[in-house]
Amino acid sequence: MEKKTQRITERDAADEGKRRPLDAPDGGYAVGAIIRACSVLQAFRFDEEALRLREVVERTNLHKATAFRTLQSLVAGGMLRRVGLDQYRCQFRTVKDQKLRIGYAEMARDSVFSIDVTSGLRTAVKDTEFELEEFDNRYSAKVAVQNAKHMVNAGVALAIEVQIHEDVAPVIASIFREANIPLIAVDIPHPGAVFFGGDNYQAGRIGGRELGRFALENWNGKPDVVLLLSLKAAGAIPLARITGMAMGVKEILPSLKSDQVVTLDGNGGYVESMQAVRSFIPKFHGKRILVGAQNDASALGAIDAFDEQPREVDVAIVGQNASSAARAELRKTGSRLIGSVAFFPETYGLHLVKLARDMLAGRAVPPAVYVKHVMITRKNVDHYYSNDALLDVPQRDALLWHSFH
Q1: Beta partners for 374?
Q2: How many independent structural domains does the chain possess?
Q3: What is the pLDDT of residues 51-79, one digit of tens each?
């Protein structure tokens, strides 16, 4: 009786073209259509993820026609639901312990900005459907391109890219686009990627207005020069901070002349900015200087350059990013740093995880998501950063890094 049942089972399978060898682990009784249906269901990796037919084909290696028929059967059986012309969503969680790998290439591990972003992102992915595959771009365009290729080879579901070189952004974006991997570009736009980060023009404008108000309240609105420390290598978008600073100052001080605004390339670094300001000071014969810096490293480099000069000069400096070192400087009595525009990189992680989840689920996301900016001064620094006393604040020699922030 047992042999007859076995022969009938084999014949039925052969009629469907699904015969399996008798020495298979399942004894040859598995139904191919059900195996394929399970493969399709397992292609859905987390709640609310919406997949297109081509994505199901890529994840299951099924023939397109077979995948299509299987999808339609699962919709008819109530296991999937159609959410668009060519999108499907699973009605339940099929593999609860499966983690999606997110590739994350940080700007550099010795960057204060990167430390904040990375720490926040690691915290944000805990107890979620994601796990991080981390890479260090080391401020290098070449390394950033190599890391993008490594992420593709690692099969990440989504990539988060933090690198400062505008000239390789199209190359990196192309690598992910060709691999059908969605990309989030942090602070430096990449073609076709969703942008997340600061609104550079507005952040600069906030800083410029603060400089203008200082001059109005303390110098009768008459600075001798406005010195702007830029980072040309980062490209036009980040340089919008410098444009914003110039405009912000002029909003408050409309009588300011164009030849009173001087831009130097501080390369976004503490040492480079200090050297640039050192070279500028002997050529300056006035007394009152407003300084708008691309980032806090540049601002702190400028402070030390002015502090070492024997000639007395009135200086007011605004930085960008409100880093821990800048906040420590703000708390010093008589510091030349009067403020720094906060980007709150420690909160990036929560926003990036939400954005990644929406993108992978097929939900519509805006092409650019901007963080909020707040001018941090010695008056409000304790309000926004009340736990700074618990931090190990970087000293000047820890700022010898090149950083967009």
Answers
A1: 342
A2: 3
A3: 889 889 988 999 999 999 999 999 999 99
Write out the residue range of the structural domain in which residue 23 sits. 2-90
Nearest to 206 by CA among 322, 368, 334: 322
Is residue 257 in some structural domain?
Answer: yes
Query: What CATH number is associated with residue 166?
Result: 3.40.50.2300
- Residue 259 resides in a domain: yes
The answer to whether 281 touches 310, Cβ cutoff 8 Å, is: no
Amino acid at site 7: R
CATH code of 27's domain: 1.10.10.10
Confidence of residue 49 (pLDDT cuts 50, 70, 90): confident
Asked whether the beta carbons of 373 and 198 are under 8 A apart, the reply is yes
Is residue 95 assigned to a domain?
Answer: no
The two tokens of residue 266 are: 């501080």
pLDDT digits (tens, 9 = 90+) for 282-303: 999 889 999 999 999 999 999 9
Q: Nearest CA to 169 among 190, 148, 187, 150?
A: 190
DSSP-assigned states of every residue in 272-340: HHHHHHHHHGGG---SEEEEEESSHHHHHHHHHHHHT-SS--EEEEEEEE--HHHHHHHTSTT-SEEEE
Angle at 119 between CA 362 and CA 295, to 5 degrees: 95
Sequence-distant (≥ 6) Cβ neighbours of residue 122 within 8 angstroms: 132, 349
Is the pLDDT at 98 greater than 80, yes or no? no
Distance CA 250, CA 192 (A): 34
Same domain, 50 and 13: yes
Query: Radius of gyration over alpha carbons of the chain, in Å?
Result: 28
Q: What pLDDT score was predicted for residue 27?
A: 56
Stronger pLDDT, 238 or 275, i.e. the higher one: 275
